[in-house]
Amino acid sequence: MSAKKALPNKANQQYSKQKQAFGPTEEGTIVKKGELVDYLPLVKYVAGRLAIGLPRSVEMDDLINAGVVGLIEAYNNFDGSKGVKFETYASLRVRGSILDELRGMDWVPRSTRARSREVERALSRLESKLGRSPTEAELADELDVTIQEYYHIIDDVSSAALLSLDESSFGEDDDKPVPLVDKLRPKDEPSALVNLERLEMRDLLADSLGKVSEQERLVIALYYYEELTLKEIGQVLELSESRVSQLHTKAVLGLRAKLRKRFMA
């Protein structure tokens, strides 16, 4: 039994209950425009997950509004003949639209970006030297800080790291967030090459995950694949929510450092 089944996501349960009143959307079904309101719980669910860890200055209503734009775009572009559920397609478009909104807000302070890049560089240096993911004590030593100071640094950059695998990588000047996909290829390249690059990135991520600690790997799997919240992951792993956030941040910064080294050299 998966962790998600053992500890269901409350928001997901709520979304499922609200959705049941309208019945399932079968594969290949063409969604009618009047039915879009049925998918508003999906928008709220996706926005709620992405809002975790963001500062209070980021308004939930802004994320939901952006998600509704994504939902409408999904309706306009959905091709039911391809055998994909509208719900699946819409969730991706909603997520992407919200991430675009967050990217446009540029809510991460410059100091946080700079600190994030500092940790990334330290991780990259140590991994090249050690041939493995460094321990937290080793990383603290490389940063020339105490272990408690290291935890404060990780806590400081954790809100930015919550979106790191989904959203963007910071530019070399630590000023503006740059979408990773925009750094991978020119927009006019053939789709075959695009697919090859994405497969290569997927393989790199899989290889990178194999080198992090077991706890970090579990946190990444439970958060991004099982879609548990940090609090729920803490209950599964018997860790505090803040400790889960620290493990997530270290793992994500390490993965992002590898992606930067491979694709942005």
TrEMBL record:
Region: Disordered, residue numbers: 1-23
Biased composition (Polar residues): 10-19
Biological process (GO), any one: DNA-templated transcription initiation
Sample GO molecular function, one term: sigma factor activity
Domain RNA polymerase sigma-70: 229-255
SUPFAM superfamilies in alphabetical order: Sigma2 domain of RNA polymerase sigma factors (SSF88946), Sigma3 and sigma4 domains of RNA polymerase sigma factors (SSF88659)
Keywords assigned by UniProt, alphabetized: DNA-binding, Sigma factor, Transcription, Transcription regulation
Stored InterPro entries: RNA_pol_sigma-70_dom, RNA_pol_sigma70, RNA_pol_sigma70_r2, RNA_pol_sigma70_r3, RNA_pol_sigma70_r4, RNA_pol_sigma_FliA_WhiG, RNA_pol_sigma_r2, RNA_pol_sigma_r3/r4-like
Database matches in PANTHER family: RNA POLYMERASE SIGMA FACTOR FLIA (PTHR30385:SF7), SIGMA FACTOR F FLAGELLAR (PTHR30385)
Protein name: RNA polymerase sigma-70 domain-containing protein
Organism: marine metagenome
